[in-house]
Amino acid sequence: MNRNLDANHIVKLLKHGTNQPGEVIPLHEPSLTGKEWQYVKDCLDKGWVSSVGEYVNLFEKKLAQYTGARHAIAVVNGTAALHLGLKIVGVEYGDEVLLPALTFVATANAVHYCGAVPHFIDSDMDTLGIDPKKLDDYLKEITVQKNGCSYNKKTMRPIKALIAVHTFGHPADLDSIHTVCNKYHLDLIEDAAEALGSYYKQKHTGNWGKLSVLSFNGNKIITTGGGGAILTNDTGVAEIAKHVSTTAKIRHRWEFIHDQIGYNYRLPNINAALGCAQIEQIDQFINKKRSLAEKYRQLFKNVTGITFFREPAYARSNYWLNTLILDEKYTASRDSLLEATHEQGILTRPVWTLMNKLDMFQNCPHMDLSIAESLEQRMINIPSSSKLGGEDG
Ligand SMILES: *Cc1c(COP(=O)(O)O)cnc(C)c1O
Question: Which residues are the signal sequence here (predicted)?
Fold first, then answer.
């Protein structure tokens, strides 16, 4: 049975919620209203624009302070951070890495960059993250343990790591996921690209994994133009991350000795200058985003067939992207809603196509993905820029 939602009514609610009459309303745009000009000008005036400089060190310090992680290592983007992170935990050619089918393509691409095979797992309806119970049952069935490592019984490849994604800024169930990772000897990496400013049980996301990853792309909660970071509480991991992201060069006044394959992944100082200005405003951004989310929640409270997705009970989310979920019987209304909103300049968006449906990953192993498949058909992201939110938070 398929029923249609009243698209005009939904458009009206979104117009009311965003309150920008006559304008095109992007899904997410950066807010550059702090000291961005001042700090970037300072870089230009002093000539420190590249991979060495005060701002990149300061930005790392501020990221560590804000997230409570012991170390932050700034890199060129979130994808590079994932690639480097997987290398650091020891993912190698022919390994498998578990990750949700419901994620942005960068998570799966980074696994492929290591010569490893992405293995897709299902999501949880209440968190939009990995379902730890379903994962545990699945791993019980498909893995065999040997010398403290899990092997995929079918492919006999080692399953080395798991990447937990905090979808749209909503923290996955980290305690339970951590427990499953320990049980099956998997290194946990948190893809917290969307989750700066999101807390799991009072503690900032990014502190459960061996390391975790942030992104400062133009559409993320704060931006450096392009940028990313690795967070870790392990000093050894932090040292390797810094070393390998700067071409693995041994410190010397003139010799060029590199002790392993390294990467040119260091975030340039001029980008970090933007980041320093942005992170000074993050509390304000998140207050506004949370107040926008609350406004949407009220507006959609009594709308039949649509649920505004709320943070899990254990979480305090940044509400990076606000999300509507259609009831199953209204699935067929999704495209007409996308069309009606775009026609009115409200740039809504469906969720990503599941990774296992993309050509390059279609032959990768995956578990039953019924929840992710259902969510894929029914989710719509709605405009979420912080400037749309009120000051009160
Ligand atoms: C944005 C994003 C990334 C990649 O970050 P970039 O900085 O764009 O490379 C990775 N994972 C998720 C979940 C993201 O949203």
Answer: none
Token couple for 136: 């545990």
Check if the beta carbon of residue 76 is closer than 8 Å to that of residue 265: yes
Is any ligand 1 atom within 6 A of the Cβ of residue 271?
A: no
Q: How far apart are CA 217 and CA 224, in angstroms?
A: 7
| Distance in angstroms (rounded) separating the CA atoms of residues 359 and 19 | 40
CA 321 to centroid of ligand 1, rounded, Å = 13
The verdict on the CB of residue 372 being under 6 Å from ligand 1 is no
Same domain, 24 and 105: no
Looking at the CA of residue 220, tell me the nearest atom of ligand 1: 1
Asked if residue 3 has pLDDT above 90, the reply is: no
Q: Are residues 299 and 375 in the same domain?
A: yes
Confirm whether 130 is domain-assigned: yes
304 alpha carbon – ligand 1 mean position (Å): 33
Note whether 70 and 215 are same-domain residues. yes
How many Å lie between the centroid of ligand 1 and the Cα of residue 217? 7
Note down the domain range covering 296. Answer: 7-31+282-389
Domain CATH number, residue 86 = 3.40.640.10
Q: What is the pTM of this model?
A: 0.97
